């Protein structure tokens, strides 16, 4: 099971993940987010990141050119779309750059089932099932996850205390954590360590 820690913005955040080895991290490029990082800051942080950990860029209705530029400069290794991007936009993105694309789906909205069907039928690589627009710290009703064909990341309100139970219940491809491993709005090394430890224990139970 993949582990992704999202919303890294400081050198000490990178040091924390380097020491605990999740599979992926996320840089948020949405200017309205309190976890926003500039492309230059993200590049500096990426250069500090262990080469065995992949970096995702999180975007909300960003231009195609800006996303492609960050991929080509190797600031990010995956693209995560969190806005109202269309299937056609995703197809253009995949044509322009050869990296995995993740599409977030809000599982609390009225159209979540239609969204799931639409993206399941597309060429997107992964889905990310979340509460609202992401980073809310709230879990959604896992009973809403019925038939999902694409491999998906589970997000929304995951903490070191509940992530193992959620993973055992839902069996996602991966888990994505952000606010649940923070203290006072900053990434907490001990919480990251505990979350990674508990998920690795779940992996041993599933095998």
Automatic annotation (TrEMBL):
It catalyses: N-(5-phospho-beta-D-ribosyl)anthranilate = 1-(2-carboxyphenylamino)-1-deoxy-D-ribulose 5-phosphate. Pathway: Amino-acid biosynthesis; L-tryptophan biosynthesis; L-tryptophan from chorismate: step 3/5. One of its GO terms (biological process) is L-tryptophan biosynthetic process. It comes from the Bacteria. Keywords: Amino-acid biosynthesis, Aromatic amino acid biosynthesis, Isomerase, Tryptophan biosynthesis. It is an enzyme of class 5 (isomerase). InterPro entries: Aldolase_TIM (IPR013785), PRAI_dom (IPR001240), RibuloseP-bd_barrel (IPR011060), TrpF_fam (IPR044643). Its EC number is 5.3.1.24. Residues 3-196 form the N-(5'phosphoribosyl) anthranilate isomerase (PRAI) domain. GO terms for molecular function: phosphoribosylanthranilate isomerase activity. Belongs to the TrpF family. PANTHER family: N-(5'-PHOSPHORIBOSYL)ANTHRANILATE ISOMERASE (PTHR42894:SF1). This is N-(5'-phosphoribosyl)anthranilate isomerase. It comes from Faecalicatena orotica. The lineage of its organism: Bacteria, Bacillati, Bacillota, Clostridia, Lachnospirales.
